[in-house]
Amino acid sequence: MKAATRIVLAYSGGLDTSIILKWLQETYKAEVVCYIADIGQDEDLQRAQRKAYDLGAHKVCVEDLRDRFVENYVAPMLRANALYESAYLLGTAIARPLIAQRQIELARELNADALAHGATGKGNDQVRFEMTYRALAPDLGVIAPWRIWDFQGREDLIAWASQRQISVPKDKRGEAPFSVDANLLHISAEGKVLEDPSQEAPEFVYARTRAPQNAPDNPRELAIDFSDGAPCAVDGKQGSTRCCLEELNKLGGEHAIGRLDLVENRQIGMKSRGIYETPGGTLWLFAKRALESLTLDRELVRLRDSLVPQYAALVYNGLWFSPEREALQKLFDYHRSFVEGRVRLRLYKGSTTLLGRESPHSLYSPQHATFEADSVFDPKDAEGFIKINALRLNIANRRQSSRQSS
């Protein structure tokens, strides 16, 4: 990469990105602009801003992206019912393209010539950040310190930080028990104490959900209203999609909803074990699928569901800004206006029970579905339907019988 004079760094305020900030200044003799995105991680971002300035940052931008995150990233992804490897709600993956996109926009505003991130060389996030960089700003330089510096591990980082008077909290000395990523959709933990998948995750790992045995002894019933494919009210209280997700996070976490212990396949080829908590997203998807069972055509759902794994893999692999993801999104959004109505649920000690669903766009016809006498369906029609559909089976069976007799 050519020499950089101004670098925009995705900054969290943690030990790694604080060291990266100082390392970039020393290595490139460049001005470093720190970008801090508020996507609902529940951290003291003003403290992080002060820390960056204390370390010599040229400029520190803190931006509230919570609404943009939910409306433009989480909601479209959940309209596609995306689950990576049929389980993971992609909480980390869906946040990276937004942060990277805003880094690029800030770099343009400030005439920066390079972008930097703190993702490690073994993980998925380096791919997610840089696929967005390359897609939207191929002219900007990219700096990934974990792939190019000489530090071998955390002890090296701490020693280097101490030499430069970078404060290292006591709980950061030595090996961290696990690493954490958080935003409005989820919180995840991986590494160290979690690296043996044969061992149960310690309860102290969980931060957003109660253990089922500690959840309330009384069930909690709630109603979720949907409009245009996304929640618009919880228990009759209207609000933005973000506000609904926040309320669902609260209720789901209290009742132990949304825990996942997953061994997943990283894009770079290795398996990793992660603990995910996605209480609100889990309730959102559960209720939405219940509503879709009422309002969407059978063949449309079958086609959609056949493409969900491909869509989820695109998000997981950092291809949010790819033409194939955008094309699939149009297909998944085709029916969004029909996903409108109310779903009633019961939450109890980690389980979610469907109580009922209703919609002004329902395709459910009691006149056709009844087991009682009706005037809209002639049972005799079924005979021809069965014969036509069984014809290929009859022909194939005759061929098989003929082969066996010869």
Q: Which class best fits the helix and strand makeup? A: alpha/beta
Fraction of residues in β-strands: 15-25%
CATH architecture of the largest domain: Alpha-Beta Complex
Q: Taking all residues together, what is the mean pLDDT? A: 93
What is the number of helices?
A: 13
Rg estimate, integer Å: 26 Å
Specify the biggest β-sheet.
Answer: 5 strands, parallel
- Let me know the number of strands: 14
Q: The CATH topology of the largest domain is what?
A: Argininosuccinate synthetase, chain A, domain 2
List the strand order in the largest sheet.
Answer: 3-2-1-4-5
Spatial gap, N to C terminus: 72 Å
CATH class category of the largest domain: Alpha Beta
Label the overall shape.
elongated
In short:
This protein is of the alpha/beta class.
What report would you give on this structure?
With 406 residues, this protein is an alpha/beta fold. It has helices at 15-28, 45-54, 66-79, 96-109, 125-136, 145-148, 154-163, 241-254, 279-295, 298-316, 323-333, 366-369, 381-405; strands spanning 6-10, 31-38, 59-64, 114-116, 141-143, 179-182, 187-190, 220-227, 230-234, 237-238, 259-265, 271-277, 341-348, 351-358. It is built from 13 helices and 14 strands. Helix 1 (15-28) links the parallel strand 1 and strand 2. Helix 4 packs across helix 5 (125-136), helix 8 packs across helix 9 (279-295) and helix 10 packs antiparallel against helix 11 (323-333). The longest helix has 25 residues, at 381-405. It is elongated, with a radius of gyration of 26 Å.
